[in-house]
Amino acid sequence: MRLYGQTHGENAIENIITESVIFTLLSERGLGPKLHGIFPGGRLEEYIPARSLKSEELSDPKLSLMIAEKMAELHQLNIPINKDSTWLWDTMDRWLQQPIKDINWSRDNMELDQILSTNLCDEARWLKKHLSKLRSPVVFCHNDLQEGNILMKENDPGCRSLCLIDYEYCAYNYRGFDIANHFVEWTYDYTNPIYPHYSVNRELFPTQDQQIEFLKRYSQCMENEESIELILNEVNHFILASHLFWGVWSIVNSRMSKITFGYREYAIERLKSYFKLKESLINNK
């Protein structure tokens, strides 16, 4: 049984309805847990004897190709929700309306001071203009395909042994974002029992060969195969969007979330990575 808990924000009810529609359709297509019923305040989902993948398993050659297949299947779905290309920008814009500069963080960190002095609204506008040049297709995306949202079913061999869960961020979005975000998640582990409750190892980011193998399988599963080089270029630039999106998310959640997590450290980590990559891409034009 999944309970929605307390809802807040002007779009809270609409978001719950949208997630329920998405859950129902993915359930019918065998991409997620079966839906047994909906009631005010929650829903009854199938219990799946399974475990979440570990971060190091994302780089497993066999599992990586299985994830590519699942992503391709997801990207080809026709879901009756808003199909505009605005979800990424609208979501960040809504978050950036929060009084970020008023967050009561300890201001003894030079990196944090530098980040908070940056106009992140301007960064989002620059990024939107920059990524629009790539013309990345808008498809139905998971938008948070990290190891914790991929279940490995017990005693169920084959591609169907993987099940995608947690549709909170599912929306029509740029293909490049979904793939890039997944690749970035190879480097993060959210099972650290010690504060800040995550760890990062940039050395685990997929090599070009690993990215190509993933994209080959992804492209083969799509109705119309596309140039691997074209998709690879999209991904390299949409990594920026992943870092900025989750960096802003972390800043906002430091004010609102009751979950014990190093939101400040995570925001610094993601936004530092954003600015470093931005500088590299600009210099290598």
Explain what you see:
With 285 residues, the chain is mostly helical. It folds into 2 domains: 1-47, no CATH class; 48-283, Aminoglycoside 3'-phosphotransferase, Chain: A, domain 2, CATH 3.90.1200. The chain contains 9 helices and 10 strands. It has a 3-stranded antiparallel beta sheet with strand order 1-3-2, with helices on one face. Strands 4-6-7 form a 3-stranded antiparallel beta sheet, covered by helices on one side. Helix 5 (120-132) runs antiparallel to helix 8, helix 7 packs across helix 8 and helix 8 (228-256) runs antiparallel to helix 9. The longest helix is centred in the C-terminal third of the chain and has 29 residues, at 228-256. The radius of gyration is 19 Å and the shape is globular. Belongs to the choline/ethanolamine kinase family. It comes from Aphis gossypii (Cotton aphid). One of its GO terms (biological process) is phosphatidylethanolamine biosynthetic process. GO terms for molecular function: choline kinase activity; ethanolamine kinase activity.
